[in-house]
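The authors assume throughout that readers already know how a fold can be written as discrete tokens. What matters is that the chain and its backbone geometry are given together, residue for residue. A single example would do more here than another paragraph of explanation. For illustration, here is how one protein appears when written out as sequence plus structure tokens.
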Amino acid sequence: MSLTRRSALGLMAGAVFAPSIVRAQSFPARPISLVVPYPAGGPTDAIARFVAQEMSSSIGQNVLVDNRAGASGAVGTRAVAHGAADGYTIVFGNNQTHGNNMFLLKEPGYDAVKDFAPLCGVGAFEHAFVVRNDLPAKTIAELVALAKAEPGKLNYGSTGVGSGSHLAMELFMQRTGIKMTHVPFRGAAPLVQEIVGGRIDIANSTLPSVLEQINAGTMRALALASPERNPRAKDIPTLREQGVSNADADSWAAFFAPAATPAPVLDQLSKAVMAAIAKPAITESILKLGFTLKVRDPDTFRPYHLQEIATWKQIIADAGVKPE
């Protein structure tokens, strides 16, 4: 029985695509590793664990959180970029790991766009301006006036050079024409302790990292660097409400897989992540952290991702922050 040329080509094409189809149909056949490129215990880690737990129930395989901290999130992110592109290793990244590191590290070891495929944009950590309780500034206008009276005297803390809290404050200083002295820390915990202790004047920190202290009255919040007020902190006005525009600085977060992962597997993972976040119990747990949910599917997230990279690349250049 002879084969026509068209039939032969069809069989050849089927043979080429068959392995990926089989892999997709059998996926997942073993546990999935969800890399969090930061230490355990923070809000990023908490969100990843909420989603991992729900995904484990829905896909029939354990999704195990793997904390791989170091180099501003580059260590864990790099490991995923160069790992097997089979869907069994994904990463929960953010504007630092999949954006600013491209311009703040001399050799990040990966390309945030070319090496990754987005699975789901989750939303953002809003930044809150918080001050020590005895700082004589109750509003953003009073803070600006205080800073202009003695340029450089006020100090501000951040979670590290090039971190979201550092760059958000650089943006604010550019927009208001003030100058303050930068004091970087290794993470949010020591920064929060220094503000509570009255040794740091101000910080533009992510809301989840300071919400508990704001509610407890151990520090004061002046503003949110976000377009709208947060439902979990309704009494904190935005910068826009206080006359400062173009200084919003949300720190977004998203799930990614290696770019070469087969499309059917990417689709399956994307749907599983979005379904997990949509569960009412998971949604409520994430919102309680002070995180703002804005779920974006891969097609919607890609242009947003590119625009964010372009925006912060310019801010980094204007601030004169050099790669390390």
